[in-house]
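Reply to dn_fold:

You asked what the input looked like. This is it:
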Amino acid sequence: MDPLRVTVPSSIDQARSALEVALKSKGFGILTEIDLQATFSAKLGADHEGHRILGVCKPQLAKQALDLDRDVALLLPCTVTLREVEGGTEVIAIDPQHVFTLAASDTRAQLVPLAAQVRAELAEALAGIDVSVA
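and this is what came back:
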C-alpha cells in the first residue's frame, strides 16, 4: 500500500477544517467521520491520541466506478485519516490505485484511468491543505 501522506503544523481540528476546504476545491466531500479517540475513551476507557477516520467521496467519480461494477461499492468511499503526531497532524489518504486492484479482474483495467484520476486529485488536495484558513 502506498498512501498519500502529509504532516501539517496544526491541531487535528484545524487540520480537519483545512482538509475539508482542500477536498471541496477538488469536488470531494466528507461522507463519514469516526473519532477513534472519543470511541476508545467511551467504549474502552482507554486513552488514544487524536485520531479520525474520514470517508471521502467525489460523487461523479464514484458513479463512474459503480457504473462499471456495482461491487466497487465495497471499495468506497476513499479513506483519509488524521492523527496527532509530534509537530502537528499527519493526514494520510489511501491510494485508490492500490485499492481498485481489489476489484474483479474483468473490471480492473477499466478502473485504471479512474483510479489514477482520483489519486491525482487526492494528492493535490493533500498538497493544498492550508491551515492558515482553518
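The chain has a mean pLDDT of 95.
Hope that clears it up.
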